[in-house]
Amino acid sequence: MQEGSITNIHIARVKGTPSDPVQEATAISGMGIEGDRSCVEGNTRQVLFMDKETLDDLELTPGQIKENITTSGVDMSHAQPGQVFFIGDEIRMEVVGDCEACGKMEEIRSGLEDRLNGRRGMLAMVINGGTMKVGDTIRLDS
């Protein structure tokens, strides 16, 4: 089991605009993060996780590639569909797959789409909701 912490939380309220950094957010079972544009029942792309180590390697800042939760100490490239993220004592999110880099990454920096290929983070669905905050422990069940 990998264990780390949440370093940043971002909510993408409106498509095409920067995500808002927050210190605390509410995960809603079967929906996503309250206030996020991806918080829709039935959406399998509810929450995007990214590790700070990869962002640092690519000289990106947290939230820049639209991830909701930035972690430290958990390597997202090892997460597999079906595995579960545990945040604090109550929140559980199931990994549904990796987030493919898209052309929007080129708007951030030329060549970024290729550099992010296979490293854009992991998408998850909220199984058990609750409140999370920056600094909370996150574990990836192996």
Any descriptors?
3 helices; 7-stranded mixed β-barrel; 142 residues; 11 strands; mainly beta
Task: Produce a short descriptive summary.
The protein is mainly beta and 142 residues long. The protein has helices at residues 52-57, 104-108, 112-116, and strands spanning 2-11, 20-22, 24-28, 32-33, 47-51, 69-72, 84-87, 91-98, 122-128, 130-133, 137-140. The longest helix has 6 residues, at 52-57.
Architecture overview:
By secondary structure, this protein is mainly β. It has a single domain (2-140), classed as PK beta-barrel domain-like (M1 Pyruvate Kinase, Domain 3, Beta Barrel). Helix content is 11%, strand content 39%. The chain has helices at residues 52-57, 104-108, 112-116, and strands at residues 2-11, 20-22, 24-28, 32-33, 47-51, 69-72, 84-87, 91-98, 122-128, 130-133, 137-140. It has a 7-stranded mixed β-barrel with strand order 1-6-5-9-8-7-11. It has a 3-stranded antiparallel β-sheet with strand order 4-3-10, with no helix packed on it. A hairpin with a 3-residue loop joins strand 3 (24-28) and strand 4 (32-33). The longest helix has 6 residues, at 52-57. The chain is globular. The chain starts with a strand and ends with a strand. The relative contact order is 0.28. The model has no long low-confidence stretch (mean pLDDT 93).
